TrEMBL record:
The keyword ATP-binding does not apply. Signal peptide: none annotated. It comes from Pristionchus entomophagus. It comes from the Eukaryota. The keyword Isomerase does not apply. Pfam families: 7TM_GPCR_Sri (PF10327). This is G protein-coupled receptor. The chain crosses the membrane at residues 50-72, 84-108, 128-149, 170-188, 220-245, 277-300, 312-333. Keywords: Membrane, Transmembrane, Transmembrane helix.
Amino acid sequence: MPEEYKRRTLALLSHNQRVQPNRSLVFASSNLPLMNSSQLDPGVERVIVLYHHISDVTFFIVNFLVGLLIVLDKDRRGIEYRKYLLSLQVFSTLTDVFFTLGIPILVVNSRVIYNAGFNPFHIHTSTFLIIFFLFFTEIGSSYFSCAYYRRNAIFGRGYPLRWEGRRKGLLLVSVRLYALLAAALLYYCTMMIDTPDGEIPTSLNWVLTKPAHMVLRPNFYLFALLAVILVWGGSLFGLIVAVVVELSRQLNCALPNISPTTKRYQRRAVRSLKLQGAVPGIVYIIPVVGEFSILVYSAFSGSEEVAHDANVTTLSALLFNVISMHTFVHSITTLACSKSYQRVVLGLFCKARVGDANSWNAENSAKVRFAEAPPTIY
C-alpha cells in the first residue's frame, strides 16, 4: 500500500511540472503596456467625452438665447445686417452641435482621426468631416456678408465694387459656390487618402474598435487637401481683411456726407465687426497652428517615434477639441459688443429679481396680516 501511494504521488508531481507555465514568460508579458502607445489614453478620452456632454447643453442654451435676441431686436437701422448675423449665429451653433455630437478626435502624429461620440446613420469619418467643413464655410460666408453690408452702409453709391440688388446677390452666391467647389475637392481628396481597414498598420489596429475612423495616407492627395484648405481659407480671409481695413481707413478720414452721430455709430459697428471676427477666430487659429506644428515636428523628428509619444497624442486630441468653443465665444463677444442686447439681458435679470422680491414681500405681508388679524370665531 505505501508503495502504491508513493507511485501515485510521484506521477502527480511529474504531471504538475509538465503543465506549469513558464514563469519567466508570464512576468515578461506582465511588463508589456496594456495598449499601444499610439492610442489616446482611455482616461483622457473619457474626460473629453464628459466635457462635451456637459458643455454641449450649456453652450447651446447661451447660443440659442443670443440668437433669440437677434431675432427679437426691433431696431430698424440694421434689419438686413441682422439677417446675416442670424445666419452666422445659426450655422455656428449647428457646427458646434454637430461637432459635440460626433466628438471627433484627431491624433495628427499618427495621422488618425476617429469619432468617440454619437455617430448618426453610421456615417464614415470622411463624410462627417465634409459636413463639418460645409457648416464651417457657411460661417465664413455669413461673416463676409456682414462685412460687405457694413461696407455698403458706409460708402456711397458709385463707389467701386459697391453692388446692390442682383449684383450683390450674385456676389454672395459666388462666395458660397466657391465653398462648395472646395468641399467637392476635399471630399475627393479624403477618398484618396483614406486607408482601407485591411491595409491599416498593426500598430494602429486599435482604431478598428472605433465606430468611425480614418487613417490618412501620406500621399500626394494629402498635400492637395491641405492646399485646398489653405487656398479657400486664405482667399476668403484675405477678402474679409481687405474689406475691414478699407472700412477702418475710411472712417478715420473726413466724411462730408455722414453726420458725426452716424459716424460714431458706424465706428462702433466696425469695431464690433472686428471683435466678432477676431475673438472667436482665435478658437480656430490655435488648434490649426498647434496641429500643424505637431505635424511638422513629427516629420522632422521621425514619425514613428512621435507617433508613440503619449504626450503628443494627448496634446493633439485636446487641441482639436478646442474648436467646439467657437460659437460660445462668438455669442459672448456679440453680447459684449451690443449695448442693446446687454440692456435686454440686464432688464430680464432685474425683472426676475424684482419679481422675487415682490413675491417675498407679498408672502411676508400676508403673514403679518394673518398674525395681526383677530381670531376666527366658529
